[in-house]
């Protein structure tokens, strides 16, 4: 696997994965268009995707399949349990929780996520509390009082 000079170049072109262009600012669209062209033109940049469907869409755009790696979402925590529990308690998390990490902005549709989470938790209480971790990117979002939000972790 080519790591482009010792560093991974991570890239996801959301417009090609189904997000509408109106979900981006003009500057964001320009950034993604230029990034996409750079990825297509340079064989030394590998692509990480989270779904087989996105891999196929990127292949159809002309990027060789050998440059595209499928990565699983999620995290397995191998650290010290006591240290983990201390951090969670300090953050006010005392039971099971579902965490979402990423910049808070309209194109990520957090409002729908929060609404869906509330509906799902009614039938699956093991989901616990919803925790958002991420700085505000652009736009506004109303975060209900029962959702924990950390913008500076």
Descriptive notes:
The chain has 153 residues and is an alpha/beta fold. It is built from four helices and five strands; from the N terminus they run αβαβαβαββ. It has helices at 26-41, 52-60, 81-90, 110-123; strands at 47-49, 68-70, 97-101, 129-133, 148-150. A three-stranded parallel beta sheet has the order 3-4-5, with no helix packed on it. A two-stranded parallel ribbon has the order 1-2. Helix 2 (52-60) links the parallel strand 1 and strand 2. The chain is globular.
In short:
The protein has 153 residues and is of the alpha/beta class. It has helices at 26-41, 52-60, 81-90, 110-123; strands spanning 47-49, 68-70, 97-101, 129-133, 148-150.
The major β-sheet equals:
3 strands, parallel
Share in helix: 25-40%
Order of helices and strands: HEHEHEHEE
Shape verdict: globular
Q: How large is the share of residues in beta strands?
A: 5-15%
Q: Give the uncertain stretches in residue-range form.
A: 1-18
- Number of helical runs? 4
Average pLDDT reading: 78
Side by side, the strands of the main sheet go 3-4-5
Structural class: alpha/beta
Number of beta-strand segments: 5
N-to-C CA distance: 32 Å
Radius of gyration: 18 Å
What labels describe this entry?
single chain; about 150 residues; alpha/beta; three-stranded parallel beta sheet; two-stranded parallel sheet; 4 helices; 5 strands; about 30% helix; about 10% strand; globular; disordered N terminus
């Amino acid at each position: 696997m080519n790591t482009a000079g010792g560093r991974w170049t991570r890239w996801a072109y959301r417009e090609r994965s189904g997000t509408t262009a109106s979900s981006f600012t003009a500057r964001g669209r320009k950034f993604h268009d230029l990034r996409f062209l750079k990825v297509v033109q340079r064989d030394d940049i590998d692509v990480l995707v989270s779904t087989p469907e996105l891999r196929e869409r990127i292949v159809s755009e002309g990027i060789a399949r050998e440059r595209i790696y499928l990565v699983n979402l999620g995290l397995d925590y191998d650290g010290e349990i006591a240290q983990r529990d201390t951090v969670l308690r300090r953050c006010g998390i005392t039971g099971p929780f579902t965490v979402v990490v990423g910049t808070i902005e309209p194109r990520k549709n957090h409002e729908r996520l929060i609404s869906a989470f509330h509906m799902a938790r009614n039938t699956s209480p093991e989901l616990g509390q919803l925790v958002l971790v991420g700085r505000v990117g652009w736009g506004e979002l109303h975060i209900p009082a029962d959702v924990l939000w950390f913008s500076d972790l």
